[in-house]
Design brief:
Belongs to the RRP4 family. One of its GO terms (molecular function) is RNA binding. Its main location: nucleus. It is found in: Nucleus. The chain is mostly beta strands. The protein has one domain: Nucleic acid-binding proteins (OB fold (Dihydrolipoamide Acetyltransferase, E2P)), CATH 2.40.50.140. The chain is built from 2 helices and 11 strands; from the N terminus they run βββααββββββββ. The strands form 3 sheets. The protein has a 5-stranded mixed β-barrel. The relative contact order is 0.21.
Length: 166
């Protein structure tokens, strides 16, 4: 009689639209190597993918940009990203934003189900959670979102920052 078993530990298989959390392990030529708990380890960020970087505008990339890649993401930085598409060489194109201030936890990918809501605020603890489909979970202090288009006055009423004419 033969006994067989299958381990529940497996690698994450990315799909377009997945929210993933990872850690930068290496900065290379025109791309970063990221630990995503996947067999696909490279990521490339296209023009417009770095919306949080004011100096990474839509323009032709130069060798100076390659030298400054560590100003955007450096080794050991934690990122949160959405899988945008796959390259022929097996790398991912993702849209990313920085998550430098927080902790990275790892669970088996099968424990995190794909969902419409991967970003969670735990009010009682004052923390934000990002559940990556790849089994990585980012935990950090809650940061309050402020809409700069709305100005409040002393009465607590919301008003438009622009005056209107009758």
């Amino acid at each position: 009689m033969e006994a067989t078993w299958h381990t529940l530990h497996n690698r994450y298989k990315p799909e377009v639209g997945d929210i993933v959390v990872g850690r930068i392990t290496e900065v290379g030529q025109k791309r970063w190597r990221v630990e995503l708990n996947s067999t696909l380890a490279f990521m490339t960020i296209p023009d417009g993918g770095l919306k949080f970087c004011r100096y990474w505008k839509k323009r032709r990339r130069t060798s100076e940009d390659e030298l400054n890649m560590r100003n955007i993401f450096a080794e050991n930085d934690v990122i949160c990203a959405e899988v945008h598409e796959f390259q022929r060489d097996g790398s991912l194109i993702i849209h990313a934003r920085s998550q430098k201030y927080g902790k990275l936890l790892k669970v088996d990918p099968y424990l995190v189900k794909r969902s419409n809501h991967h970003f969670h605020y735990v009010e009682s603890l004052g923390i934000d959670l990002i559940l990556g489909c790849n089994g990585f979970i980012w935990v950090g202090e809650h940061v309050e979102f402020r809409n700069h288009m709305i100005v409040t006055n002393n009465t607590g009423m919301e008003q438009s920052p622009y005056s209107t004419r009758d």
